[in-house]
Design goal:
Length: about 290
């Protein structure tokens, strides 16, 4: 495969970029704690660094060199970039001070009206769902899959799209920014359930298909004693199990947060404030009339 000749260079620059991001994040995190600007839990930083580590495993570790030889290795990459790394990264980004400090240089453009409209559109659960499902299906079409194996450029685009769509998908669930979700919070449970359907269809097809869907693996040497068909079935079963377990855990935690007494108290306060503001504005409207 052509892209395997560039594996060492790709691993080097990916590792460099991830290390730079980790150092910037830790610098802001340490400064925040030193200035006592905000009480920051250490698990936030650990979560963010764990996400970077998962990205490194998927793109720059020895695992990345196996994706051209085993469909299971490719599936592990896909799961790390779309299902596991994005939620833990967004949990780490829930800290206000490190994120804002790292984005001060581009804060003004982000606050512009066009960028706010774009951000509001991207935060819609429907768009996030279709972006993740479309990315998943598109890159597992045999012709697109082969393109990612044969071209170094398209291979990088494939991995970047997995990560970007994963971050987009998990954004409404994690909600790293306050009040970023405009939809009812209870709709996220349906959102997570529906997200399992494309994964179940694809993984079920790979598991129960009686032929090798991606013939490129027929010429690859057997790894770990698996035939190409057994490798395909293992990849499908891995995707089926991992996605189901992760989404089930996320839905359980989200439901527990919705039913917690603290969340119920917050909703009551918001409803009271909304009713109070309505009462205040009614006399003004009557005077205007």
């Amino acid at each position: 495969m052509l892209h395997t000749h560039h594996a060492t260079f790709e691993s080097f620059w990916v590792s460099t970029v991830l290390m730079f991001v980790a150092l910037v994040y830790l610098r802001r995190w340490v400064r925040t704690r030193g200035l006592n600007l905000e009480t920051v839990a250490g698990w936030h930083a650990a979560s963010f660094l764990l996400g970077l580590l998962l990205i490194w495993i998927a793109t720059a570790s020895p695992l990345a060199a196996l994706d051209h030889a085993m469909l299971t290795a490719h599936m592990v990459q896909h799961l790390l970039l779309m299902t596991l790394a994005p939620p833990v990264i967004l949990l780490g980004m829930a800290m206000k001070q490190p994120v804002q400090g790292a984005l001060q240089a581009i804060d003004r453009p982000l606050q512009s009206t066009p960028m706010q409209k774009i951000g509001g559109a991207l935060a819609r659960p429907v768009l996030c769902w279709f972006a993740a499902a479309g990315t998943l299906i598109a890159w597992h079409i045999p012709s697109m899959f082969l393109l990612g194996l044969q071209s170094q450029t398209w291979h990088g685009i494939e991995q970047a799209s997995f990560l970007a769509s994963g971050l987009l998908f998990w954004w409404p669930v994690i909600q790293p920014l306050p009040n970023s979700l405009k939809w009812p919070e209870s709709s996220i449970l349906l959102y997570l359930f529906l997200a399992t359907l494309p994964c179940d269809i694809l993984s079920g097809f790979l598991v129960f298909c009686d032929r090798v869907v991606y013939p490129v693996f027929l010429s690859s040497p057997q790894s770990f004693g698996l035939s190409p068909l057994e490798d395909q079935q293992c990849a499908g079963a891995l995707m089926w199990t991992c996605v189901t377990v992760v989404y089930l855990i996320a839905a359980t935690l989200f439901a527990a947060r919705l039913l917690s007494p603290h969340r119920a108290e917050e909703r009551s306060i918001l409803q009271f404030q909304s009713a109070r503001s309505t009462v205040r504005t009614d006399p003004q409207r009557m005077e205007a009339v």
